[in-house]
Amino acid sequence: MAVTLKYPFVKLEAPPEYRGIPHIEPRLCIGCGACVNACPADALLKIDDHSTGTRKIVLDVGRCIRCARCDEACPTGAIRMTRNFEVATLDRSDHVEVVELRLHRCPNCGNYTDYTERALEKAFQILPEGLFDKEELRKKAILCRNCRRKLTVDDTIEASREVVG
Amino acid sequence: MKEWARRIMDEKVREKYVNEVVEKFGDRIISVERNADNQWIIEINREDLPEVVGYIVNHPEWKETQLSTMAGADERPLRGKFSLIYWISINGASGDVFLGIKTYIPEDDPRFPAVTPVHPGAHWYEREVKDLLGLIPEGHPDPRRLVLPDDWPEGVYPLRKDFHYTDSPKREFTDETKYPYREPPKGTAVFPLGPYHVALDEPGHFRLFVKGEEIVDVDYRLFYQHRGIEKIGENRLTYDQVNFIAERICGICGTAHALAYAQAVEAAGKIEVPERAEYIRTVMAEIERLHSHMLNLGLACHDIGFDKGFMDAFRIREHVMWLAERLTGNRKTYGMVIIGGVRRDFLEYRRTMIEETLRKLREEFQKWVDQTLSTRTFIKRCEGVGVLSYRDAKRWSSVGPWARGSGRNFDARRDHPFAAYKYLDFKVPVHKEGDVLARCLVRAEEIMESIWIIEQALDEMPGGDILAEWKEIPPYREAVGFTEAPRGEDVHYVMTGEGNRLYRWRIRASTYNNFPSLPDAMRGNTVADAVLIIASLDPCYSCTERVQVVDLEEKRARVLTEKELIELSRKVSRRV
Fold this sequence. Notes:
- The structure holds 2 protein chains of 2 kinds.
- Chain A is built from 5 helices and 6 strands, in the order E-H-E-E-H-E-E-E-H-H-H.
- Chain A is an alpha+beta fold.
- In chain A, strand 2 and strand 3 form a beta hairpin.
- Helix content of chain A is 28%, strand content 21%.
- Chain A has helices at 34-38, 69-73, 117-125, 134-141, 145-164; strands at residues 22-24, 44-49, 54-60, 79-81, 96-105, 112-116.
- In chain B, strands 1-2-5-4-3 form a 5-stranded mixed β-sheet. A 3-stranded antiparallel β-sheet of chain B has the order 8-9-10. Chain B has a 3-stranded antiparallel β-sheet with strand order 13-14-15.
- Chain B has helices at residues 3-8, 11-25, 49-57, 76-79, 123-133, 229-235, 239-247, 254-269, 275-303, 307-328, 348-373, 376-382, 390-395, 400-404, 412-415, 436-460, 510-514, 518-522, 527-536, 562-575, and strands spanning 29-36, 39-44, 66-75, 81-90, 97-106, 111-113, 136-138, 189-193, 205-211, 214-221, 337-338, 341-342, 478-485, 488-496, 502-508, 546-551, 556-561.
- At the A-B interface, loops of A face helix 7 and helix 10 of B.
């Protein structure tokens, strides 16, 4: 049984189970940061810029240890391990993938929240049918944390006035 | 559970050991607490440390008892004191017990009497707590630095809680910070080996004091690669993340470390692992042993210039690597073990793959053994070389094939059945000669046993879940996790903490217990055999190095390339 392979002169295909380098599919990524929390090696970073309202999910394959925790953590299947193992390069920036997403903006105060528009849409999408009045919920959910709190308090005061009045 | 496992895991057998210690030391024991199924923590005063630890380790009836690990911790935020815990394991199939001898040390007087004079196995551990925590072992025969670099400032202790993990003290290398190597004995020359060298796993510096070709004594300096993994594990990583870093402690026995860590946390958090996961863990641990032992046997052949055996061993080994790649997604760093179970199941086609590979492997490996053992050069070069006596192996608490080649009948798989080993039957090969050949034979026999263990495990593997759910682990609970890595017993000590993080994590790889006994095995041998002896301890190799030969009397230095050293080594082969 010979085991010597002609690689790299002959292209080598990794087996189907192989854990190669991860790749983010930008169309699926909602920027929730679950992969960032799971990553033991800090290969994934979440960088928010509240002045321009963008979130960057940065994947540096050079730091990746191929443990595939991000793959398990991702709620949308955006980050997946590929079977690609050839990562040698002369330019370090070849290792970096950046997904840029828009942060959600509160329509009331105009501040950026700490979640993305896509994450909010995803949350609406996975709500179980028939439990909530979706339109009512949406009115409140699109506000930022402070405005929502204020609205709740205002509503309560309003309601108590009605009771007292 | 098999009969042999039931016998040593019996409650009465376990309590016998604890009771005897309690009876012997009576009111000098402050408290006894059972922290896990097979683990007891006995608290004593620091003055009694050498006596209690020495009593258990050197007990005439508990033959294979040994110091498994020792951990110091900075418990000042909790209790205002430092703590030390010596974990002693009862081995030799006479009871599945771990005894943790714990003592507290006040902050204003960080001293304790050293255990090393009564049991040299504590040598490194006590030097390490001195470096990392600033606890001074009084009466230690060799109080030099062990872990920290030469230019690390005095009085800065990285494992103390007030040292942040991103801190980096100012370091300056001067003549004063140079490591105080031992003076060579009279009439000897120094033969430096390493730090970068073909035969060493990590960069390690050996100073062979030679008289002609004979090695008279050895001094060493290691820990060039201390990466502070424990500190990262305690500060930055969550319980689940630590597993993957633990797997990357060692390039060869990664699963053994990941498993030891997972078992420690499971013991501390009382997490029940599904039976199927235990079987899968067992199979992965054995696959790792297969390729690790084949690597070592191949390299032993390479060192003596028997390259046919080397090539053959690596050819056979490659199939195991490919198998691992199909099972787990990678040749190494399997990423299988996490707290509570494993991540990938063995589907039916994977099972067939294992069976097929094993069948071929058994046949080919048997051929390899027959061929190698009938090669006269191999036998002549290995026989009687690098003899480690039983007494030395026991004295230094050596583990694994290194100790089993010297007649120590001790294997964590049998003596402390973890994972699924308690459901399986297997032998523990032991040889008494203590030379390189004995260690090679132990490894060769273990490969055959491993194949047999995997076959049994595949046959008996039950269905069901592979991962247990766990929510929270109670803080400040202590436990050890232990596995038998290819190189010997691997022990991880954990103390759980708050906020999904560890409070203290102590890793003890098998080589940590084996290295201090290396000088004993090297004394009296020739320089040409030095590489072979170091290799028989089974460190990994890095291959682009050189050694420097210094002749003290003629004050002339010459650099030996790797090629020349191997050539020198092979000349000896030709002579036999």
